[in-house]
Specification:
Layout: H1 43-56, H2 66-79, E1 83-85, H3 99-126, H4 130-151, H5 171-190, H6 209-226, H7 232-245, E2 255-257, H8 267-270, E3 276-278, H9 280-288, H10 294-297, H11 302-307, H12 330-333, E4 355-358, H13 360-372, H14 381-393, H15 402-409, H16 444-458, H17 463-473, H18 502-507, H19 509-515
Antiparallel strand pairs: 1-3, 2-4
Helix pairs in contact: 1-3, 1-4, 2-3, 2-17, 3-4, 4-5, 4-6, 5-6, 6-7, 6-13, 13-14, 13-16, 14-16, 16-17
Length: 539
């Protein structure tokens, strides 16, 4: 008989189906509707796992976009400087943490993703399903690291404890537990290579244990590099462990959630709302580099399509005031996302691009960074750097030919200045003169800037991850915003974090007030306080 311990997570059996929704989940961790099942149909487990995959990335089954828009488009996408908003009422581009939005982003994860992740983890442990348990442990790390990279201290080890006060963990504790959790999962996956799990439900790898093992190792590499400036010895050890066990080498290794007409890429819908456009930094880097990905990532401006005048790809400054956002034709004057992200009526597909979780290209740039540091990565920084570019340019969404790839890798093009004929006061010079071609004779920091810049391009449009890496490395060198409405975060600073959400002060006040006093929040619970891992010297 299928067994399950008395798991009470504010769930119902219906909530485990792919189309389920828990939008009204308001009091986290209070267990109002305990799920107790002694003979739960094991077939439900696969649905729960698929649900966990989607919701951890804020991809609502059924194609809903509100969670994704609030959590990523209105924060990470803008703070990473992939996009700038054109919507008058979107103040987050001026470093304002809109409380209702961040509260909803927090509640979405803890109301919809975390409970299902926990259910699958506890169910597979109780029923002695070690492979399935290992896979959900890996996915748990993939989901939670995104959340802690927004807020820093979060509810983690105590989630689902059934208490009305749920203690937070420090980010240091969380990250170090990530590595332990990955150790446990990888050990099991190594013992079961060639096998499958969650077949018919795994939206990323179709259940392949081998692929999940490679993903786990590459995720370890990402997290190892994240802590490089705060725990360099730990970072080196974990990165070298990941390499020894095998990280992503080909595009076929990449992790992406497949989209369908019933589960579309959220940009498929969001792009119809006309709320943001290509950023000025994107223009400076991609147009300056004459990057072959530019026309795939971004559409030509409406004005250029209509008249053939001006630049085909144009970016907008971040941080426009409400008054500046009233400038006529901002959407027509600047580039929307590329056709691959649009719906059929705008030249796209019926489902949109697959959602990329982690790519082989990113893995190579992480290896390149480690190689610059002198770690045992198995190659040189230049080799990994050029392989990362090659993998990015040969992804199905780009499919560049060998000649195009070679020309780009050897290019001495540099980022360009950005100018506005209708608003010259917005003009800004390029923030860097770093070329594409690897600077074999360059300084260590110049090489790291090249690696960070190319990684930023390659992982587009994952603004969640890009914002984390921009904070960690400061590459590509960001542009200052035109305005900041946040008294603690100046316009020329990358937004360091989100503060704890108001709902926690209502529902979990004892715990969140205790978290405010964590030593790693030395600057207080402010947007200006850097995360634990955000420790690169300003020198």
């Amino acid at each position: 008989m299928i067994k399950i311990s008395k798991i009470a997570m504010g769930l119902s059996v219906a909530a485990l189906s792919l189309g389920a929704c828990t939008e009204n989940f308001e009091e986290l961790n209070t267990r109002p509707d305990a799920l107790v099942a002694d003979n739960l149909d094991i077939g439900l487990l696969g649905n729960a796992f698929a649900n966990a995959q989607a919701r951890a990335m804020y991809l609502a089954p059924g194609g809903g976009t509100s969670g994704f828009q609030i959590a990523q488009s209105l924060f990470g996408d803008l703070y990473s400087q992939y996009f700038a908003t054109t919507q008058v009422n979107f103040d987050s581009d001026r470093h304002t943490q809109v409380g209702g939005w961040s509260n909803s982003a927090w509640n979405y994860y803890y109301g919809q993703a975390a409970p299902v992740i926990q259910f699958v983890e506890e169910f597979t442990e109780a029923n002695e399903l070690p492979v399935e348990n290992a896979i959900i442990k890996v996915w748990k790390v993939a989901g939670y690291h995104r959340i802690t990279d927004y807020w820093g201290p979060i509810i983690y080890s105590n989630f689902g404890n059934g208490e009305t006060s749920v203690a937070y963990d420090t980010q240091e504790e969380i990250y170090k537990d990530f590595f332990v959790t990955l150790d446990e999962a990888v050990a099991v996956l190594k013992q079961n290579t060639g096998k499958s799990a969650f077949v018919g439900h795994d939206q990323i790898y179709g259940g392949s244990v081998d692929k999940w093992l490679t993903f786990a190792n590459t995720l370890r590499l990402r997290l190892a590099m994240r802590v490089r400036f705060v725990e360099p010895a730990l970072a080196k050890s974990e990165a070298e462990k990941a390499v020894a066990d095998g990280v992503m080498e080909t595009n076929a290794d990449g992790a992406q959630i497949q989209t369908t007409v019933n589960s579309r890429n959220p940009y498929w819908i969001i792009t119809n709302w006309g709320e943001y456009r290509m950023s000025a930094l994107m223009e400076s880097v991609m147009v300056g580099y004459d990057d072959p990905r530019t026309g795939v990532f971004f559409s030509e401006t409406v004005n250029y399509q209509n008249t053939g005048e001006g630049m085909p790809h144009k970016g907008l400054r971040n941080g426009l005031s409400r008054e500046e956002l009233g400038t006529p034709n901002l959407n027509d004057l600047h580039s929307d996302m590329g056709t691959i992200f649009l719906n059929e009526g705008r030249g796209g597909s019926a489902a949109g691009e697959p959602w990329r979780v982690l790519s082989a290209a990113e893995a190579q740039f992480l290896l390149a960074e480690g190689a610059v540091e002198g770690w045992a990565m198995g190659g040189t920084a230049q080799e990994f750097y050029e392989k990362g570019i090659t993998l990015s340019l040969t992804e199905p969404r780009i499919a560049a030919d060998a000649g195009t790839i070679a020309a780009y890798i050897n290019s001495n093009n540099t980022p360009s200045d950005v100018s506005y004929s209708f608003k010259p006061e917005w003009n800004i010079a390029a923030s860097s003169n770093i070329p594409v071609a690897f600077m074999t004779g360059g300084t260590k920091e110049q090489q790291l800037e090249q690696i960070g810049t190319q990684k930023w391009i390659a992982i587009y449009p994952d603004g969640w991850e890009a914002w984390a890496e921009l904070r960690r490395t400061n590459y590509p060198k960001p542009y200052p915003r035109l305005n900041s409405d946040n008294e603690f975060v100046p316009a020329d600073v990358v937004m360091p974090r989100l503060v704890f959400v108001q709902g926690e002060y209502s529902n979990n006040s004892e715990a969140v007030l205790a978290a405010e006093k964590f030593p790693e929040l030395v600057g207080g619970n402010l947007n200006s306080t850097k995360l634990w891992w955000d420790a690169k010297s300003d020198d």
